[in-house]
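Bench notes, afternoon.
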Amino acid sequence: MGVTSSGSLRGWVGLGAVAALPLVAALIAPTELVALSGAIRASAIGMPTKPSPSSTTIAGVARAKDGDSIMIGKLDTRLFGIDAPEHDQICQNTDGDSWPCGQEAKAALARLVNDKQLRCDVRDVEPIRGRRPIVRCFDGNHEINVEMVRLGLAVVFDRYVSATPNYLTLQGIESEAKAAGRGMWAGTFERPEDYRANRWERYKARSPKGCPIVATVKSKVYRTPWSGGYSVAFEKASSPGRAAEFVWFCDEEEAVKAGYRVVPAQGLCASHEHDFRSELGEDAVRATATSAACPANRCNSD
């Protein structure tokens, strides 16, 4: 799967696509569980075609990646049914002043989950970006997905959750957050999926053949318009003197099939910082570098 021409993510598999669920078993294989030293547990053998909390559960120490993604041990997961603002997304308060709602969403999720032992029920799986599980995560009896909506720092991802039993509950909590003026509802904001789509369209119009995904040949990574360092990579790839160092793709599926991996939405893996420094220059590294090494010394998807 990949990105549609409108820029909306196709990495989410619909609930009806139960055939994709065995991919979770391949991702969380028994050998990987051993390698994680008990940080993650899953019923990966004999996984049923339809998920259930008792048979498709991940548990481990968590940390926030962004406003709707969590690392459980070394496993990258995406929170089910909600959509938080992108890392660089800006919202406006009631006075019309701008504030970094994307960064605040990540900070709020970090306060909820970092260094805590969570239990996450797998609802689906993304076939792109490492085939990461799409999950409902719990700290005891408190559902993290719900809390982000309650705080007004994530919206209900209607088209992916409308057919599920907890849709009305999520809708009610979102309405409550809106009425109370919490988080993004304290002013005006662009829905995250619209923000992604609009950015995609802006860069698509400037890209060769309308294909805005930029891939770096040397390190075999690609950037979408919402990836870390994208604007710098885009300008470098558009320069005639650097064109041979980059490849353009129309969607993520095409890039993955060609052997490229996605670069983080924000932050660089310490183990790859040298490559990015030499390819994109100091400005890109200063804009996206992180001091923390990535889990298992590899980059995380955005």
